[in-house]
Amino acid sequence: MNFTSHDVVIIERALRTAMKHDLEEHRSRDYQEVLLKMQESASQAFQVNAPVARADHEGIRYDYDDSSDLM
Predict the structure, then answer these.
(1) CB count in 10 Å sphere of residue 38
(2) CA 19 to CA 29: how far, in whole Å?
(3) How many CA atoms lie within 13 A of 49 on its CB side?
(4) What are 22-56's pLDDT values in tens digits?
(5) 15, 35 Cβ separation under 8 angstroms
(6) pTM, rounded to two decimals
C-alpha cells in the first residue's frame, strides 16, 4: 500500500492525538512505537528517492528531427 505524504501526516497526527488522550500507558507506548517506525520509514524513503527526483529533472533529450531522414 502506497501512502502519500498527506496520508502520512494525517496518520502521524492521529497517533499523536491518541497518545495524548489515551490514559492506558501500554497503548500510548504502542502508538509511539508505530509513530517512530513511520517517521524512520518516511525519512528513509526521502533519502532513497531524493537522487531519483533530481535525475528526473535532468531529463532525457530527444531530437525528433533525426527521424525525418527515414521517410
Answers:
(1) 15
(2) 8
(3) 6
(4) 888 889 899 999 999 888 887 776 665 555 545 55
(5) yes
(6) 0.55
- Check: CB of residue 41 under 8 Å from CB of residue 33: no
pLDDT tens per residue, range 6-20 = 888 898 999 999 989
Q: Is 4 exposed, middle or buried (0-12, 13-18, 19+ CB in 10 A)?
A: exposed
The DSSP symbol for 39 reads H
Angle of helix 25-58 relative to helix 5-21, nearest 10 degrees?
160
DSSP type of residue 22: -
> Cell for 7?
496520508
Per-residue confidence band for 2, with pLDDT thresholds at 50, 70 and 90? confident
**Residue 34 CB: number of other CB atoms within 10 A?**
15
